[in-house]
Design a protein that fits this description.
Layout (H helix, E strand, L loop, with lengths): L1 E3 L2 E3 L6 E3 L53 H7 L1 H4 L7 H15 L3 E8 L5 E8 L5 H4 L4 H4 L6 E3 H5 L11 H13 L2 H7 E7 L4 H5 L5 E7 L1 H4 L3 H17 L1 H18 L9
Antiparallel strand pairs: 1-2, 2-3, 4-5, 5-6, 7-8
Helix pairs in contact: 1-3, 3-11, 3-12, 11-12
Length: 274
């Protein structure tokens, strides 16, 4: 199609046509091309970077009145598998060491090997109090230390031992753990972290006569809610591993002291000989 000064010449036969003509008057062919709309712009494909790991879910928002900070012993209990150093490590031993290391880091105490007992001396770890501190922050396992005057000392064995329960408990480790959770957690926080699972069992006639219970209650951790406290636990874990690595012998002695205290609170059935 050729256009010149308002005139259109047919590209097929060369006849002159008006500038607004759509078809040639001579050959009848279309002389104006329909201009198709421009194609949509080609969108460049977006490049996505694939993550190599799934990000962890954000910590849950705790309900009102839930504690924002937990004691070292409770943190060590909630994440006990991450704090466990050796196969022989007991939960109470780890909780006690976490409490002592936190106090040590704050320069509230010093710990060192020593002896306990008046006549038959036994190896132990001595805790020397050198500054006042808030036992509400450090928890149940720090109460006996907080009651000491500045400059006095107490053994780790005596920190863990409850003299009133000596030789009377079936499960002394569970007893100490319950004491820690009861004293260090508010009721709202306890319900935020745990629930009670009730499991019923079938009893025989003999079981009923012997008054064996027909149901068992177990405390279960709500792991999703415990994640709210993971940042605190990670800080404590770094501190914990630092002190264990710098003095593993002292840590072993702390574990031994806790085991001895638990053993002395355990009920052992004895036979009377006449």
């Amino acid at each position: 199609m050729v256009a010149l000064m308002g005139r259109i010449y047919c590209p097929y036969c060369g006849a002159e046509n008006p500038s607004d003509a759509n078809y040639c008057w001579r050959c009848g062919r279309r002389i104006k091309q329909v201009i198709p709309p421009p194609p949509p712009p080609v969108q460049q494909p977006t490049t996505f970077q694939r993550s190599t790991s799934i990000p962890p879910p954000p910590p849950p928002s705790p309900p009102p009145n839930v504690q924002r900070y937990l004691s070292p012993a409770v943190l060590a209990y909630l994440f006990k598998e991450e704090f466990k150093i050796y196969d022989y490590s007991s939960t109470v031993g780890v909780m006690t060491a976490a409490t002592l290391y936190s106090l040590l880091q704050a320069n509230c105490i010093r710990i060192y090997p020593g002896k306990r007992g008046r006549i038959f001396k036994k190896d132990t770890v001595m805790v020397y109090k050198q500054a006042y501190f808030d036992p509400g922050f450090y928890g149940y396992l720090s109460y006996k230390i907080s009651n000491l005057p500045i400059g006095k000392e107490i053994s780790v064995y005596d920190v863990v031992l409850d003299p009133k329960k000596k030789g009377s408990l079936d499960y002394p480790q569970s007893y100490v753990i319950e004491q820690v959770l009861e004293h260090d957690l508010s009721p709202v926080t306890w319900n935020f972290l745990f629930y009670i699972e009730v499991r019923k069992v079938k009893r025989s006639l003999l079981d009923k006569i012997l008054l064996i219970p027909g149901e068992f209650k177990t405390r279960k951790l709500i792991k999703e809610h415990a994640e709210y406290y993971r940042p605190q636990a990670l800080k404590l874990k770094r501190l914990f591993h630092y002190y264990v690595s710098t003095n593993p012998v002292l840590y072993k002695m702390i574990e031994d002291d806790c085991s001895k205290a638990l053993s002395d609170m355990e009920y052992v059935e004895t036979e009377d000989f006449y």
